[in-house]
Amino acid sequence: QSILLHGQQAIWHLSNFIDKHVKVKYNPSGDFKSMHRHISKGSWTFSDQDHGWPASDCTAEALKCCLLFSMMPVEIVGEKTEPTRLYDAVDVLLSLQSKNGGLAAWEPAGSAEWLEVPPMSI
Q1: Nearest Cα to 100, choosing from 82, 121, 116?
Q2: Residues annotated catalytic, as ranges
Q3: From CA 95, how far away is CA 39, in angstroms rounded?
Q4: Residue 45's closest CA among 30, 60, 33, 35?
Q5: What's the number of domains the chain is made of?
Q6: Whole-angstrom Cα distance, residue 40 to residue 38?
Q7: Which domain holds residue 108?
Q8: Rounded to a whole number, what is the distance in angstroms from the first to the last CA of the chain?
């Protein structure tokens, strides 16, 4: 029973850390688009929420964890992530998808089309 209790505590701490300390709660302040920044509300970063730069792989993995935690009892994971916060994460991921179906790592592709043409097609 002791091992089970420690496991439950570890899951609770992980759930709390992922949802409360790493997830970005707000977009950058001011006119962030003019500063060549992208939305970040709902994303997860490489470090903590103060970092503020979303990473698509971190966001996807953390979203997957939150969805798994949502299927577990509250006694194990504690307070569940609000659905609107999960929707924000999905919005960030969809906003990073390129026209060709690829997924940008942290910012949408923004260079000129001629720059993104593979060498074999020139």
Answers
A1: 116
A2: 57
A3: 8
A4: 60
A5: 1
A6: 6
A7: 2-121
A8: 65
Task: For the full predicted model, state whether its pTM sits above 0.90.
Answer: no
Cα 26 to Cα 119: distance, rounded to the nearest angstrom: 39
- Give yes or no for a contact between 24 and 40, defined as CB atoms under 8 angstroms apart: yes
In the structure encoding, which two tokens stand for residue 78, read together?
Answer: 């504690």
CA distance 44 to 51: 10
**The pLDDT value given to residue 111:** 64
What's the token pair of residue 87?
């929707």
Q: What is the pLDDT along the chain (122 residues), one digit of tens a residue?
A: 566 666 777 877 777 777 776 788 888 888 887 877 788 888 888 877 777 788 889 899 989 988 988 898 888 888 888 899 899 999 999 988 887 777 777 777 666 666 666 666 66
Side chain identity at residue 17, one-letter code: F
In this prediction, residue 116 carries a pLDDT of: 62
pLDDT score, position 10? 80
Distance CA 97, CA 35 (A): 20
Scanning 1-122, the segments in alpha helix (DSSP H) are 2-16, 56-70, 74-77, 83-95
